[in-house]
TrEMBL record:
Keywords: Amino-acid biosynthesis, Aromatic amino acid biosynthesis, Lyase
Reported function: Catalyzes a trans-dehydration via an enolate intermediate.
Name of encoding gene: aroQ
NCBIfam families named among the record's database cross-references: aroQ (TIGR01088), PRK05395.1-2 (NF003805), PRK05395.1-3 (NF003806), PRK05395.1-4 (NF003807)
Binding locations of substrate: 74, 80, 87, 101-102, 111
Pathway(s) annotated for this protein in UniProt: Metabolic intermediate biosynthesis; chorismate biosynthesis; chorismate from D-erythrose 4-phosphate and phosphoenolpyruvate: step 3/7
Molecular function as annotated in GO: 3-dehydroquinate dehydratase activity
UniProt cross-references to InterPro entries, sorted A to Z: DHquinase_II, DHquinase_II_CS, DHquinase_II_sf
Enzyme class, first EC level, given as a word: lyase
Protein name: 3-dehydroquinate dehydratase
Species of origin: Paracoccus laeviglucosivorans
Sites annotated Transition state stabilizer: 18
Catalytic activity entry: 3-dehydroquinate = 3-dehydroshikimate + H2O
Lineage: Bacteria, Pseudomonadati, Pseudomonadota, Alphaproteobacteria, Rhodobacterales
Enzyme Commission number(s): 4.2.1.10
Length: 147
């Protein structure tokens, strides 16, 4: 069964607890459950991660090189700063989809640039937590999921 790594960056562990006007009231645990459920329906094994530390995210991308058929990544604020995450993703030889809960283009100008977008096959921004599920539906045929 194809394996999809879903990586989440700094502060996303606080989803649903602060700033619901920007990020909604869904928690990261809710997103993980919904992704695992949809993954099961589509025939994909979902591995869901969150870290507040850039190096841990880089290490997890390295692990994904050996384990994953695709990556969905919401790098949080590291989207706008991290060449290290871009370099790590450039070593990964399968699809990468970048997801943002908010529409980063509607926000402060420093959020308009993404290093990760230089590598991502596609970017979903501003569709709330549904973005993760839409990314999974997009990936299913690409990774040869059974259903
Ligand atoms: O819209 C997104 O998904 C972001 O990646 C979220 C990042 C932000 O830095 C990016 O520009 C866009 C921030 C995640 C912080 O999440 C929080 C959740 C609840 C309360 C506070 C922060």
């Amino acid at each position: 069964m194809p394996t999809i790594y879903i990586l989440n960056g700094p502060n996303l562990n606080l989803l649903g607890q602060r700033q619901p006007e920007i990020y909604g009231s869904t928690t990261l645990a809710d997103i993980e459950r919904a992704c695992i459920e949809l993954g099961a329906d589509l025939g994909m094994d979902i591995r869901f991660f969150q870290s507040n530390h850039e190096g841990v995210i880089v290490d997890t991308i390295h692990e994904a090189r050996l384990q994953a058929n695709a990556i969905i990544i919401n790098p949080g604020a590291l989207t706008h700063t991290s060449v290290a995450i871009l370099d790590a993703l450039n070593t990964f030889d399968a699809p990468v989809i970048e997801v943002h809960i908010s529409n980063i283009h509607k926000r402060e100008s420093f959020r308009h640039h993404s290093y990760v977008s230089l590598r991502a096959e596609g970017v979903i921004a501003g569709l709330g937590t549904n973005g993760y599920l839409l990314a999974l539906r997009h990936l299913a045929p690409l990774v040869g999921a059974a259903r």
